[in-house]
Amino acid sequence: xxxxxxxxxxxxxxxxxxxxxxxxxxxxxxxxxxxxxxxxxxxxxxxxxxxxxxxxxxxxxxxxxxxxxxxxxxxxxxxxxxxxxxxxxxxxxxxxxxxxxxxxxxxxxxxxxxxxxxxxxxxxxxxxxxxxxxxxxxxxxxxxxxxxxxxxxxxxxxxxxxxxxxxxxxxxxxxxxxxxxxxxxxxxxxxxxxxxxxxxxxxxxxxxxxxxxxxxxxxxxxxxxxxxxxxxxxxxxxxxxxxxxxxxxxxxxxxxxxxxxxxxxxxxxxxxxxxxxxxxxxxxxxxxxxxxxxxxxxxxxxxxxxxxxxxxxxxx
Amino acid sequence: xxxxxxxxxxxxxxxxxxxxxxxxxxxxxxxxxxxxxxxxxxxxxxxxxxxxxxxxxxxxxxxxxxxxxxxxxxxxxxxxxxxxxxxxxxxxxxxxxxxxxxxxxxxxxxxxxxxxxxxxxxxxxxxxxxxxxxxxxxxxxxxxxxxxxxxxxxxxxxxxxxxxxxxxxxxxxxxxxxxxxxxxxxxxxxxxxxxxxxxxxxxxxxxxxxxxxxxxxxxxxxxxxxxxxxxxxxxxxxxxxxxxxxxxxxxxxxxxxxxxxxxxxxxxxxxxxxxxxxxxxxxxxxxxxxxxx
Lengths: 316, 293
Description:
The structure holds two protein chains of two kinds. By secondary structure, chain A is an all-alpha fold.
């Protein structure tokens, strides 16, 4: 009986719907589609909210037991040992060593490559070279880690036998190779955006190509180049596998690149691979470290965007 | 006056010499970068090529380096990447359509846009922490292939969104206006005209996203993928490992035999990536050849 009633009602609803003017139905489905699309767009917001709240929630639990001051200024990081110290500075210095070293490789090579591509190379050469250089950026980081540990480190140890098996320097060199395409590609875009008329004006005044490149094009593209550098540093700070494989797992408070060190990212990997039970203070350290990492890279990314927006030279 | 001529000539010669030296330096920088790429590839081929075989691809990992294979890792990678691709494609295209075709430019859409740019810059390991807390622990999916795929989907979502937005933006407005003039609704114009035109661009972005997901290691380690898996994943809730983690594991071991296996695994991984990138380039060329609207 009840089922009959329901089927009758369904039939009536269907009839009523079919009697609705067609454009109403279309309007209804248009609304529905719009709502679904907006819901998808909200997912990206939820991702950010999720990242921030997950990191904050667990980090707050951590900071209830460890003072923020000790965390930020302590020079010993031994959460997994018997006598526990929670000073993040050793992880920070290791991150500075590896990403600073990477920039020392990527900055000159990347900038010079960008100048070559933008100012010197003929167009077909540029179009051929660019994708090849970008292959370097597409190689998985675990491959670079393998290369650093098993090729670059033995090579360095032949040149200077005092270097440890795990060290900051080979991780830096290889990480520099990895971020080089990012520096060169973004800097080149910035330099190519400088209008021809500026270059031609400088040539008309008798400048050589070197003078045009370094005294006209580079200053004009400086905001874009600076933004590229900052983005590249941020990428190096967040890079994980190269340092986890090649730089070691010794949180040492040092700027010496030849000894084993442990970056923030490598520490998170170390805990994840270990058997530290979730919910313990030891495990919560990865959220405190993760939050620090997140904030550092966020500030650098925002700074890079700000520089592009604020200091862009507009010619038109 | 007369004395300035030799002086000018000398300075001119020096400036031109400096110019040539600088050009040489720039060329050298490019050459160094390319040489490093060649050294990397040659070294890998030298180390691992002899280990690549059908048996290597179809064997499970082993304690004996010479018998170790990548079957479990390869299948795990395929599972994770497929889940990530489907989820990221759906969410990414919907988001891009909403931002480009529906939303008005106001503070809310600007927040979404800035947010997407920033998400693209979040270190991948942080996504691992997110995946661990949300998918593995809160939603109770466990350290499964599904949780790994969803984590990867969030990681590559910004890439898909940005590529899809650019592709949709490049569809000429005249196409939409023509459809509206014939009485089409907004969605009909999008579904029948805008999306088909934008699809090569969107697919290029998707392939880039998938190759990123295929190569990522850190987030999956953090969310708890295994490092030694002697079985193939048998469903979405199965535990798993992926190719990069297998490579990482072999690299970390002291025996040279495992290092060779790692190099062989890397060769397989790079061949997969190269194939996908070639597909992306072909698609992009097709896209560029398309005549204007």
